[in-house]
Amino acid sequence: MPKDNPPEPFETSRGGLVPRFLSWLFATAPRQSRVAVHGTHEELFRMRGELAVLRAAVEAVRAEVGRRDVATLEELLRTGNRREIEALIRDRTQTVPLPDGSVLCRALGRFKMFTDAADAGIAPHLLLDGYWQYWVTEFVCRNVSRGETAYDVGAIYGYWSLVLADLVGTEGRVVALEANPWLNWLLRRNIIVNGLGGIITAKRIAAAEAAHESISMPALLIGPANGPFATAFSTEGPRPQFTTPAKPLEDIEPGSVDFMRIGVATRVERVVAGMGGLLDRSPGLRILLDFDATRCADPAAVLASLEARFPLRFVDGDSRAKACSIAELLGRRRVTTLYLSRTDPR
Predict the structure, then answer these.
(1) Can you give the residue range of the structural domain that contains 279?
(2) Closest Cα partner for 203 from 259, 140, 257, 247?
(3) I need a labelling partner for 68 at 20 to 30 A (CA). Which of 17, 199, 225, 268 fits?
(4) Which domain of life does the protein's organism represent (predicted)?
């Protein structure tokens, strides 16, 4: 007689998570629950597919430009559509807070940029996305060529100055105007750290209707309270102020200009009033102007003076310049980027 009873036939355990889930899904779960789970699985499968396609697109862009810093903006534009390029740029964002009140970041996949840690306007986009107004950036990249002369009026950190320098190359030049002493210092640091001192000339001067030895201007950003520029700002009144020399754009430098970006919406009337001579000697000039009807004393007069020289167009969200009227710019399109030129854009 055997000492032990023979073992029972082996039964596959159903205690595992996956077997129990499959049992519930295909056998015991109510039909409504099973349908809901199936729908969730289909949605997850679709999302995984889209993610795989996006990753493949990004890898294709990387294969095109290499895994180093993006070589040029022209290479970026050749690599694919906007979604792919934005994904590549975001993939390369980095931020480093610094003790002087600035934050170092990477813009457009290659430029090193110092920004103001207290800035709630442009800096968040540069820090988290790696670009600013991408639809305008793409437009600029299509419409600026090697060897040209460009102005960046109201440069702030120099984002557009760096973009323009990359596009005009060593054969061209960029003049960057930023009157705020703290921002001008950050601008100069950004020029130096990117090795573009041979292309970009930074000037601490304001564009105005006439020459002034010193004018007072409001300051949105002043740097740390104990920083080296603290004494450059006056805190009397509701908003900090600083003083700066001013010149009309026609007197900044002799010669013609090919491309100009004007980003001083609060002073657009004074800037436009001082650029007549420059317009006369630059028949092929293309201008991007940040326009805000709510910040002009007489927006209709400004637009009328511009329309007398150029067809009015604005840069739309698809990065294309489209015709517009004064009535539109005073109505539903009160804040926009205008393209002013006798030359049709690309």
Answers:
(1) 133-340
(2) 247
(3) 199
(4) Bacteria
